Amino acid sequence: MRVLITGGAGFIGSNLADYLLDMGCSVIVYDNFDDYYSGKIRNVRHMLDDDNFRLLRADVLNYSSLLNAMKRVDVVYHLAAQPGVRFSMANPEKTIRVNVLGTLNVLKAALKAGVGRIVDASSSSVYGNPVYLPEDELHPTNPISVYGASKLMAENLCRIFHNEFGLPVVVLRYFTVYGPRQRPDMAICRWVKAILRGDPITIYGDGSQTRDFTYVMDAVEGTVKAGLAGGIEGEVFNIGSGVRVSINDLVKMLIEICGVDDVKIKHEPPKAGDVKDTHASIAKASRLLGYRPKVDIREGLKLFVSWFRENLVR
Question: Which end of the chain, N or C, is less surrounded by CB atoms within 10 Å?
Fold first, then answer.
């Protein structure tokens, strides 16, 4: 199978590329190496000598580059995005441009190139604050951040291209993915760095808010299954752990795993765009994709801290 991964040098994308190469796929990573954060090249450097791997430095805002890259491609995993809820509130124009117009370009190019399937990476941010928990795919979508709104707009484009043009699209709503190669701006990465340095850590809000934390390789397995399963075109799936953990409990686990006794915790007011709780119902993904997450939160945090110590401690 020949696959293209937009944003393939990023956190989830590079782990997905490794997984697909191990499966024997021919993998094209399409990434513009945006300066939102540096160091992504190290995520794919070890792949460069693989005959089944190709790296394209290009932008999803460049339609002609996308169209050329999609020739003879079976599956496109569209992970390229401008991430960050808080970034989106301060930089709405870039967030909308990349996440909405970039997705439009991907869909247009895939339709033109005759790609067999598009798997679009969306987010639990489309739900906004929950009306009920756990959130299933029929939960109302009422995003409270520009990022969430941009992902919902991208989902709507996917739906239109599927319903009106017959493009085989599957949408995945990721719930707080974490693990090796995690972006440096993400909370777990920032907290581990602070704990190991002996710096105070900051929690926005009182810490009672909860998140459904999903280990990256569980997310990757669900993503691969969405590219392969039959009869699921046009469907939307939650990709989460199915378990929610409070921020306070998460921080306690991180402190224990890092083996640091005296950690100062500062609390600041919640940030605009942050939802109170997330909790994925994964029944649909389990039923139709055979998706079953394997890594619980404590095990996943241990794996991340171990990776962090080996790769990012400064």
Answer: C
Residue 283: HSE in the Cβ half-sphere, 13 Å Cα cutoff? 6
250-305 pLDDT, tens digit each:
999 999 999 998 899 999 999 999 999 999 999 999 999 999 999 999 999 999 99
- DSSP 3-state assignment of 46? helix
Q: CA gyration radius for the chain?
A: 19
The residues assigned a catalytic role are 147
| Regions of the chain short of the pLDDT cut 70 | 313-314
Q: Is 178 left (phi over 0), alpha (psi -120 to 50) or beta?
A: beta
Write the DSSP string, 180-242: TT--TTSHHHHHHHHHHHT--EEEES-S--EE--EEHHHHHHHHHHHHH-TT-TT-EEEES-S
Give the global pTM: 0.97
> What span, in angstroms and rounded, lies between the C-alpha atoms of 299 and 135?
24
